[in-house]
Model the fold of this input.
Amino acid sequence: MAYLRHPSRASHEELDSLDMFTHESMHIRGELNEARTECQAVQRNYRAAKLLGVADATAKQNALDIYNINYQQRGAIGGMQAAYYSDECAPGKAMDEHLSDSTWAAP
Ligand SMILES: [Zn+2]
Done:
């Protein structure tokens, strides 16, 4: 709710909350592998933010920030966080689903 009150100045933790919402939605669809689940979420955070009512440009920036900052830090931290990360989760790599409204698709 804090994220939705001021999405254009979302904190790192508020961006994490959007990502968690999308991540758990991917589990509900049936995916169990954490790295695949998280990559599906990363690609859909733009769509998820818009569904929650966030303005288009802000939703895109929030989703890109989650991918470029929060997600990449997870890979760097390693340990348990690394289970949620794959270097194949990137544009044109193995886990790219080529969604038309992907976080990292060109507008
Ligand atoms: Zn999970």
Notes: Residues 56-77 form the longest helix (22 residues). The pocket of zinc ion is lined by residues 23, 27, 34, 37 (CB under 6 Å).
